[in-house]
Amino acid sequence: MNSNIDPRPCPHNLNLTGPAPPATLPELPFVYTLTIRQQPLAARACGFGERDRRVIDPPPILQLRTTDRVTGAPAADHNAMFALHCTLLHESTDKDETQASPGGPEMPATRKLMGTLVASPYPAKDEHGVAGTFFVFPDLSCRNPGKHRLHFKLLRIDPMNMTKGAVHGAVASVVTDIFDVYPAKDFPGMRASSALLKALRRQGLNVGVKKGSEARKGKGKKGGKGGSDEDEDDDEDEASDEENAVRAGGDTVSGEGGEFAAKVAAVASANVSRQGKTKKRRRRNS
Which helix (H) or strand (E) holds 140? Predict the structure, then answer.
């Protein structure tokens, strides 16, 4: 008998089969469904500089629907936080192409998908006045020409389980249709913003709206210089300022001649706002 063998029994907590299996998430009482309300259609391949970035058009918009797992009725999960994460996929496989492989052992990896890859939920009403929870990705850019897809994963974060080693897995996922990323010389141009995006912007979402390349070309043919996307946003802001001034004037002025005084006050307020924005635009262009 070999005297070097330890005769003591093996402790029960000793792991002899390798690392412990990953923790599994408990079944939640809700079912989470992601619907793509606005598909990405095209993009212009961007370079490595921040000034050369061109966003994917139109920006992807997704809607989250939460239902009870038993009854299937609409429900709300108030005990969790949500985040939607985006990755870049190959057109026909599930290969993640968000980050390109480095060219050498000492070379850093480069990202193919640029911009803000995570979005927070935004409760609002759509273009038809129906309330919902939306995720908008207005700052995505792709470096490589070709055909791609976007993969979105919904992460549910339990604020009561924020300890080290806690598992917060994906509770829903969805993949977009295939979209084209064009070289700069072949890019067909930006499209006009959808009614859904405009509706979300009117409710406070910080995103720009565009009139589209065709509208700018038509404006240039009439003798005016086609404005940039920032100019289009300024024009829309000026219109909204004038509308707000009319409402404010109508609410504060009453009595005989009040309607005329309200219009005068509205025009004066709109002119002051427009002059200030014109000065800002001139300083930006100089």
Answer: strand 140-142
